[in-house]
Amino acid sequence: MCSLEAALFAIVYRYVVREKDTENPMLQQGVSGAFVIVRTLPKVTVPSYCSAIPLECKYFYVLDNDTILVLLGAGVASVATFLPVWLALEWVMNEKGWIERFESFKEE
What we know:
Layout: H1 2-16, H2 25-40, E1 50-51, E2 56-57, H3 65-96
Antiparallel strand pairs: 1-2
Keywords: Membrane, Transmembrane, Transmembrane helix
Transmembrane segments: 68-89
């Protein structure tokens, strides 16, 4: 499953970050961050003292130590999945030229 997620990330990244967007690091980080967040959040489970539907807890906060550890672990795993793909894509596009970036949209 991880390889499919990495392949989807590579395809989306190539389409989003175009020729003129290479000077915009926020766009590159935003695409990567969106994939990390979308992969991390579904791994979090609601603590046993909360009901999931509707979300009601006996405490005001839902993030206990176990939930934070799950978030950190899943976040690190997501970064470890997408960071090598991002680095490889940038290396292949910038240094080697094996894959070219798509042209930017024409401004009228």
